[in-house]
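User: Can you write out an input/output pair for a complex, sequences first and structure second?

Assistant: Here is one pair. Inputs:
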Amino acid sequence: MSETQHPAVSVKGVHKWFGQFHVLKNVNLEVASGERIVICGPSGSGKSTLIRCLNRLEQNQKGSITIEGVELTEDVKRIDAIRKEVGMVFQHFNLFPHMTVQENCSLALIRVRRMPKAEADAVAMEYLEKVQIPEQADKFPGQLSGGQQQRVAIARALAMKPRIMLFDEPTSALDPEMIKEVLDVMVDLAESGMTMLVVTHEMGFAKEVADRMVFMDEGEIIEVAPPSEFFTNPKSDRTKLFLSQILDH
Amino acid sequence: MSKTTTYEPGSHPNLPPPPGSVGPIAWMRENLFSSWLNAALTLLSLFVVVVIVPPIADWAYFSATFEGTSREACTATSGACWAVVTSRWDQFFYGLYPQAETWRLNLAFVGLLIAVTPWLVPNTPFRRPLVLFSFAFPFIAAWLLRGGFGLEEVHTGRWGGFSLTLVIGVTGIVASLPLGILLALGRQSNLPVISWLSIAFIETVRGVPLIMFLFMASNMLNLFLPSGVQFDLLLRALIAVTLFSAAYMAEVVRGGLQAIPKGQMEAAQAMGLSYWQAMIFIILPQALRIVIPGIVNSFIALFKDTSLVAIIGLFDLLNMAKAIVTDTDWQGLSIEVYAFAALVYWIVCFSMSRYSIWLEGRLDGGKRD
């Protein structure tokens, strides 16, 4: 299976319910390798649920999701294999508070990739340098600012050398003055050619890096378009309304 | 009267606090005599201490007798007759264990101290061999205590006193924690069979008094076992105490598990860690740290509950004390005997409590967010 033959992510006819609540309705999306997708939409529109389905933190009840040519099924081995290739950054960082920054980054290398500790530590440091906080390596997450914590979380995900990165509202829990340092790291990452799916309301970031914008509302993908078109000439009325609400103020 | 110095903005030095606001006098004013009520309570407490402490100290130490072979030795003085303790020392600690073999109990005790070191003391040198030793220790201890393989056999019926209390207490503590963790995880399991079994076990055991458990272990078990199968009484007590304690431990641990945000498990899974890896490296270290007070509380309760094995005829420390009280040589000395037994329990339990406070403080340092 050469990777160029397969789209990085292929979502076909996906439905999901939380109890009676229909959160994803017939979602179809194909993402090419190296593509940057920004997903936006009002809260409750299913955008977080969609990217959480991509690494099986949530399970879709209908439809199929294929990552790098491997279809997600009940098979735990497959799920683990896919999770190794898919990194995720969360809104609330979810760093491990009882471990140092460096241990946060090296844990999965040692336990999942079976890398010797010294080598894993070196890789962890390499990525902490990439996100520009190598000097915090021996601190605990609780001693860092929110922006620093989120950069550690990005380094932790990148250290696994994933082929796809998922970002679930990575700047929503940050103080305003810390958003830029996190977005800068994400822009660098985008420029390095990483396949990225980003749920965010940072429209400046979207305009700068996105290849395609995906707008979701009430569990459906309403519109998919390159940012130039999406922001200047949205097709649907819902998109127009949404954009007017977040851009005009 | 005092002149006010002014400083350039940004150059104000750190000055000492005004006189009378720190030091012992200030401390007393703040903590002991801050109000009329507080001052009255302080004086009342002082009065009570003055009235109570000297007579107790006099009875327990200054007028007490420490040596002697029978009650007659103590008639000369009005104080406590500790001679009963010193002359029955071996029974308090070794029960009816053969005198010539008590070195085995002492050796096992030293081994126990070594075995627990790598678990209790951070950064122990030679950690790896010590941990290996601690896993081998239960077998070594069983061999030392029971005998066989070159040592004279000592039937568990002759074990007693503090060493028996320690055997039951330590076994219960060491076995109930991992069992409790498994039950707590089982209760939260997505697999219905496992969670139902865990819940059924926990709720059944919690709904029954320990004494009843012990009665069942000593009497009813024989009804179910095929005739001729002998099951050591002590072993039955150990199993009963461990299972009982594990059910409580499970609920303590569950409290800790529930305090860990869902995002921790998700982050671990997103990185490719398996369920058990996530539990061992991420969830349990945090969850157990939160519930250290509850765990130690259970340990202390368990250690004292070991005295209930007296009910099935085992001579633990308390039952041994009871036996010594009835000894005709030492009649009427129940206060001294029970006070001494209480002191031994208290030392062990208080040590556990202090250790847990120390551990909490150490784990808290700089690690909380």
